[in-house]
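Final report, closing paragraph on structural work. Over the funding period we assembled a curated collection of sequence-structure pairs, and we close with a single example.
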Amino acid sequence: MTATTNTAATTNTVDHATYTAVAQFLAHEARLLDEGREQEWFELLDDDLLYTVPSRQSTEPRSAEINRNAWRIRDTKAHVRTRIARQNTGKAYSEVPPSRTMRLVGSIEVAATTEPDVVEAHSSLLLYRQRGIDVHFDLIPCRRNDRIRLTDAGPRLLAREVILTETSIKTANLGVFL
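Its predicted structure, as stored:
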C-alpha cells in the first residue's frame, strides 16, 4: 500500500502481504458459504467471535441511523454453531430448500490496529440469493466491518458488523450468513 500524506492513514497501513492474505480470506469464506460448506467456514471463526447486524433507521440523520444497541442478529461462535447445526436438520424451514447464493466481495480496505495480531477489514458485499424453483431472487447489499486475527494457521474472523444498505429487507427471512 502506498503511504499518503494523511497521518492517520499512514499509521494504519498494512503491508501488501497482509492485505493480500485478508483479501484472499474474504474471498475464500465467500466461496465456502456459496458452496454450502458452512462447517469449513465455521473453522475460520475465532473462538471470541461476535457477529452482529445492527438495526438501521431511515428516519434518523445519516450520522445516527445505525443503532448499535439494537440488532437483527447478535451471535457468538456458539450461536453460529447452533445455526449451522439447525440448518443440517432439514427443519430450518427458512432454508428448505437451501438458498443458492453468490457473494460478491469488493471495496476491501485493511488497516492495522493497536493489537499486533489483529487487523480491521472493511468491505462491501452484494449477496444474490434464490431458492428452489422460485423465480424471485433477493439482492442484499451491505457493508462489513471486520476484525480479523492473524494466526499461524491463517486469518480467523474475530468480529463482523454487517451494515445493511436497506432499512427494510424485502427477503422473507435472513437465514444465510453475510
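Residues 16-34 form the longest helix (19 residues). The chain has one domain: 21-164. We thank the funder for supporting this effort.
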